Amino acid sequence: MIAPTVFARQARAGGAALVTVMFVLIAVLIVAVSAATAALNAEKSARNERDRHIALQAAEAALADAERDIAALDPASARAAMFAPGSVLGFVDGCGQRADDPSLGLCSRVEAPGVPAWIGAALADGGDGVPYGSFTGALMPTGAGTLPARPPQYIIELMPFPRAGEDASEPVTNFYRVTAIGFGSRDATRVVLQSFYRKPTPSAGAAP
């Protein structure tokens, strides 16, 4: 006959084993959840980085498109007249905003303490800027897969570029500040880039 104390010891041993197994299972579950969370975060981070690169490349493309715009591919166009040597034609406060206006996206310089046009422009909202290819005919596929959600845009500000002995109030050479915004495959992903461009003129020689 087995003594009652033997059954008691076996019950206690079984209970301790069950608790140990439960702790082991909980530890395994915690490790598994942590690993899954880390994997999801890494995938999300990689997706965000890829999306940022898409927006960055779109913004860079917009800067290049703006330079082609300034270079005036069609010298006989109304747009080309805006970038004629020494011209201030078309550069207005608030930037030209009508899509059918040759002065679209052209902004006059705002003197301090005013807000510069590139800060006040509603580029992210689709206003004020020149959509990619509007004046150059360039095309950029958008809206699917790893393509930008929508075309990038840019604005061009006329900037002073006086040289020694010249009147700072008289623009004798064409110097511009270009601000571009690019979008990722998600519209919320945006990259803004800026560059300065001096257009070569017969008197100014080649741009540096």
From TrEMBL:
It comes from the Bacteria. Residues 15-64 form the Type 4 fimbrial biogenesis protein PilX N-terminal domain. Residues 145-199 form the PilX/PilW C-terminal domain. The chain crosses the membrane at residues 16-40. Keywords: Membrane, Transmembrane, Transmembrane helix. Coiled coil: none annotated. This is Pilus assembly protein.
